[in-house]
Fold:
Amino acid sequence: MTKKKITMEEMKNSLIAMCERAKIAAHQLSLLNSHVKNESIEGMAEALERDSQEIIEANQKDLKSGAKKGLSAAMLDRLEVTEKRIRAMADGLRLVASLEDPVGRNLSTTNRPNGLVINKISVPIGVICIIYESRPNVTADSAGLCVKAGNAVILRGGSESIHTNTAIAHILNRAGIRSGLPEGCIQLVPWIDRKAVDMLLKMDSYIDLVIPRGGESLIRTVVVQSTIPVIKHYKGVCHTFIDEKCNLDMAAKIVINAKCQRPGVCNAMETLLIHQNIAPRFAGMIGKMLIGKGVELRSDPAFQKYVPSAKLASEEDWSAEYLDLVLSVKIVPDLQSAIEHINSYGSKHSDAIVTDIRENADRFLKEVDSSTVYVNASTRFTDGGEFGMGAEIGISTDKLHARGPMGLQELTIYKYVVYGSGQCRE
Structure:
């Protein structure tokens, strides 16, 4: 039987109904104690593992569809769900449940001369809309984090993962309601039509915050169209700078890990910068290792002298987020040049220096304007789980409200609670 095509008016009315349910649920969630929220999230984790076959069967439909559409190997990797990845989703939820409740914290207390006591208290944001692409684990991560922080969440995944996201959301929703969560606290938009997103982005009477996760074009579209505040998670053009004095074996391991361990994610390295003084010992070696891992190299002429098979980089390459086994490489004269390159071409995501010189490390940390900066470590660690936050809602490249991996605390706001004894302002 053919499914009746929904009209734009019907879609709009359905989205309004979703938003209304979410707003009611957000209020109810804000009143729940930590025990109920934690038990619910634990129940979600158990349900994911128990019903894993339902998720994997749905995921197979998306993978077959993605392969037919010609999605890259890296994109298919982001899309694929395995038993191991389902266990990782469940473990992430359990870690979220084990963390301190971010709601109701007393952030500060001020005692005024007139006797007023002013407390700054953390509270949920309310209704959060998350628009994302490809990676189905975002569905579970977002639901768990938002529930723990007392927020209702409206999820809108990409068309390429619609079957997988639907299966995960249904499982989470069933488990949550069984455990005492209000209906409407976890909802997934069931339509892949982009007009649904356009409509959601105008529903500022219901939605308090939009968080887009995905390609740069998606995020820019959301920012332009939304009448709701947006926390941006722009592309990850991450750099690693190999300084003139460093442990070459360590540097090689960091470079290979940052580029090759999982190239299709936002914290993978996209540009390698090498100090000219260490290039004679390092450039040829690392070029051979990267090529051996299947990496396509795009470089400046200086690096080509050491690795002739490298393609000449274009100006666009220096700001490209490849999300694949492609790497731009440049030899720079000094630390200052490396910092200037990163601040000019980077996306303020994650950048690293490999060095034995403490002064250079300190300067790099201070002058590179990114959400996360590293000394002698891979950029692949920029992740809520690796930072001890449990799952993450994304990596914010904004400078307002939240920056870097967004965990529970970043999903709360605050209000002032003022106690008086009859004070009136003169």
